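Please check both lines for our workbook:

___
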Amino acid sequence: MDPRVLTWVICLLLRWTAAQKSLEVLNCCEGDVLFLVDSSGSVSSYEHARMLAFLSELLLPFSLGQEQVRVGLLQVGTKPRLEFGFDTFKRQSGLQGALKSIRPLRGDTNTVEALKMAKDVLRKRAGRGGGSGLPRVLVWMTDGVKPGDVVGPMAELREEGVAVLVVSTGHGNYQVLRQVVSPPTDSHLHFVDIDDMSIITDELRDALIEILRAERIQVRDISTDSATLQWRPVLSGLSGYYEIRVGQVPSGGGSGGGPGTSPSIGGSQYQRVTQPAGSNSVRLRDLKPETTYVATLTSKSNEQDFNSLSVTFTTKPEVLSPAVVTVSESGQTSVRVSWGPLQPDTVTSYLIEYSALPGGKLQTVRVDPRQNSTLLRGLQADTTYLVTVSARHASGKEKAMSVKMCTQEVTPALADLQLTTVGSDSVQVDWKASAQGLRGYWLTWEGQQSSVPGRHSSLYLPPDSRSTRLTHLPPSSRVCVSPIYQSARGDGLCCTAQFPSGEPSRLMARINECGLRLSIIVILSYRFLIRQHVSLYLLL
């Protein structure tokens, strides 16, 4: 091959690679970058021109303006000067022309005064509503000669959140320059000969992108079949439109191209949606559940170039009812079963199946799709059941979920309680109760005239007990007996022991206040005594 042709091909490839690299940076970032360029007497005109040419190449790929990258340049001389501020240029053409027309200041290297001006410029920008919270970067380009007392001012900038990067075309004052840069030093501090500055272009640009990178496109409100794509409205104020392509990410890869396919999604089928220049979101619909998609946004405008932005997201898995089954209102013969989520538009019916464990008879209940609970009745007490809720969906799919539920045991109340006083401070306690399921008895007693009011004493007795004797009771002691079962305590009875003041008779020992039932017995006993007294009087 002719060497001249080979050279021409290589040049074309290099230009194409550079163009592709530039396109990758477009629309990537948002923030403010202020360049502090040394143009004092220690910097020759040639070196000054090389610095500006380096800046031209460095900044060329960035999109400029509001919600993009804003660039300012401040020259260092005897009297530092702000050549242009952050709001000056919104197009690359204006910025590139300005970089070619800047002339050096000459004089002393008054970096300290320049840093004061830089602080004012960066602070004003941070104080505005549009720049608040955005990244701020100071790039100091120096020959390294007599930098001045810059460590303190640079430290103040870093404390205020400004990232400091340094490019030195000399090889002196390494320790000073190393102190002023923000970490990491290896990517934020560069020493390079003036004629070799192009070799650090990509590295310095990558460092800026890392600081300024903005989340330009994102996916929100993802469901099983839809998602919302949002982006920064970069076409606001411009003519044009947004093109959105959404397609599944192929699991095994594939070649792009062809009608109805997109190379960015590996050749799979895609949706194409267009939105006007003033919009910043679109709802993507008709997606498949639990599927990974890639959405590509391309901003189309004849006034400015923008690179395409892509984002990958995965739809949520389809939630088929029932996804959860719970039990509540558990009683001795009934339990409420609930399920969710309620999906009346997709469910045709629910079937509830339940049986006692182990080996009980299977019973079924069919429920309307607009209902998400039912009360199962006629159950056996103190029994474990397996209940299954099945949903038939309109799509033909079926889903079932099972849980165990338990009915409460029967806890019969105490049948009878009697107190018989024995002596002046003891009482015989007798009771009757159902023996089925008993785990024991709980006795408590309290002296109403005790020196410690409200103080209770308690005693546990085994299930075969039917009586006990309590001694050393204070007057008017209230005695309660409750049956204890496996899951709960049954209803008990209480009586108050009344001790006679004199020699106790057998009749008085039986007269105690044992609830309403014993009170009636006492009244009837007294009526019997009165009748006997009247009859004896009449006979006399």
Remarks:
- The first strand starts at residue 31 and ends at 38.
- Residues 7-24, 253-267, 502-513, 515-540 have pLDDT under 50 and may be disordered.
- Residues 324-407 form a domain with the Immunoglobulin-like fold (CATH 2.60.40.10).
- The chain has ten helices and 27 strands.
